[in-house]
Amino acid sequence: MTFFKEVHSHGPGMSRLGELYFNGKVVKTPTFMPVATKGSVKGLTMGQVRSTGAGIVLGNTYHLHLTAGEDSVNMHGGLSEFTGWDGPMLTDSGGFQVFSLAGINSINEDGVWFKNPANGDKVFLSPEISMQIQHKLGADIIMAFDDVVSLATEKRHRTLEAMDRTHRWLKRSIDEHNRLLKTSKHRPKLFGIVQGGLDKKLRKQSLEYVQSLPLDGIAIGGLSTGESRSELRSMLDYLAPMYDASRPRYLMGVGHPIDLRYGIDRGIDMFDCVLPTRNARHGAFWQKESGVDVQHSIKKQQFVDELSVLPGSKLLRAQGYSYSYIRHLVRSKEALGGQILSIHNLRYLQEICEEYWRES
Amino acid sequence: MTFFKEVHSHGPGMSRLGELYFNGKVVKTPTFMPVATKGSVKGLTMGQVRSTGAGIVLGNTYHLHLTAGEDSVNMHGGLSEFTGWDGPMLTDSGGFQVFSLAGINSINEDGVWFKNPANGDKVFLSPEISMQIQHKLGADIIMAFDDVVSLATEKRHRTLEAMDRTHRWLKRSIDEHNRLLKTSKHRPKLFGIVQGGLDKKLRKQSLEYVQSLPLDGIAIGGLSTGESRSELRSMLDYLAPMYDASRPRYLMGVGHPIDLRYGIDRGIDMFDCVLPTRNARHGAFWQKESGVDVQHSIKKQQFVDELSVLPGSKLLRAQGYSYSYIRHLVRSKEALGGQILSIHNLRYLQEICEEYWRES
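Above: the input entities. Below: the structure tokens describing the complete assembly.
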């Protein structure tokens, strides 16, 4: 059964339109996936998230494992049933969170021991366990367990080691995934993750390796972790001509409008990031001014008497909400302010994706 | 033009059904008014609030004056336009908040000087200023400025003084209201407030005084401020036979299901309270068990694997949300948990009100 179809391409390494198929449901790409960290896009109902045009929602394996627990989610019938998202979901592998959020006790070839921040318990995660959790969570797309090196830290010397381990763990992820598929009615798609930091030789090696394996999709991991915008762009430029056409490409952790456009123009199909919703809760929103994506803070004095309506807010109320009212809410620490801006920002990113369809 | 009509009564001092008329819009009573403190029922859109069956929403003059400011609200066309509430709104006078929340600098016959908690500024509120602010806020029902004595404090000796001052301030509220009406297209209804603490002689005197004046409605103030449930009940019993039939009666600050039922059975038409939404944000919700209103905490272990659906949650998602999922959200400090429980609790109170119509 076809999982991904390239519908239109502007040529190798350039933007393309595609379709992802999930049991009769179609998601058009490029697409931005809102993040429901613990099974909720913060402050929003899934109906509201749907209204922004989102097609896939992401859940975090690390957070769901440590809070609700995969057994509870499974008892509900999986993440979509649990959260009320009427569509496909993707879970990450937990790798990124383990390496960025948790206090790590030890990493070895087998997996990672880390500390549960909530209670100090020691928790173990490995490629096999991550696959087991993700299968139980019932996501439609699951991610291989990877060893992630933040580009913001001084650990860049770990790049080669982490890439090699990510490759070995990818094999184990595939094996465990296939083993689980034998006894499961649930048929998630597995994506492999390309690592290699900012080293182009390593990235090429990693991409070629990941693309040589029988995976359903290709993810670019380890970016958007502290590098400069020009470093990110240079890497996207470099990788663009090397993707094969048959599989979807997912750039992990990217969510700024400017980077989204750049990624799509370099052949990326899928994106996720907490930026549109996290920034919104602090009052930040995007709008297009003279063709450029500009980020504003609603808290600024310029919005105090601005009676015109924030475009995305019409998804929550037909007449919309004024900048002035939203400013008042955010400054008064009223949750609705962040909710309105979250909806606006999520819609802003989907608009960018939809533009590519309109212009094709 | 008729403002209130008694549609059906079970007899003097007993429950009754009524209708409030606002420029063609009808609100059936008894009714519970959700509180939009600063122009937002915390975490909810007004569309969601509407879905619970609410007919009137309350805004707090004190908070709106100190945050958004009445001029900004007025520029939008009033509170309903500002907040997106498609229906009538009521504002309190600020009296209760000034006396319970603010650091008071001085009270005298003229009014109250208090400290703005946000910046320490000295702010003055008087009957005249409260009327001016409420007219600018554009509410459909406004409240007289009163001197409130909390029953939880040791200031009960102030009861007589505060009642007398409330009466004098009521006269000034009416005069200022009438003066403002002369030059205004906006025609809010003015309610007077009965004070007198737990002293029945004073309460009778206050009720008779307030009812002798040309007011559109009668509010019972200063209760639900620290007295016991039996003290509250005894006072409601006592006052019930003394209300005149032609005007709506509003019991301020009451929002527990048990007290709501008791109030309705003693002839009360309108209620407001932050309890259903504030409690919800801490995980508390109501449900009927063997005919009794029971309050639960969703955080309890008993809900961990409870896959059945919380009734009120169906207003947010047709299939509803499981107790288990809501528990997970609240425990994980996800705002959606409090939002779901807020909707459920608000619906729970409207259900109580609607029962009286069904049973009539």
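Note for the figure: Chain A is about 40% helix and 20% strand.
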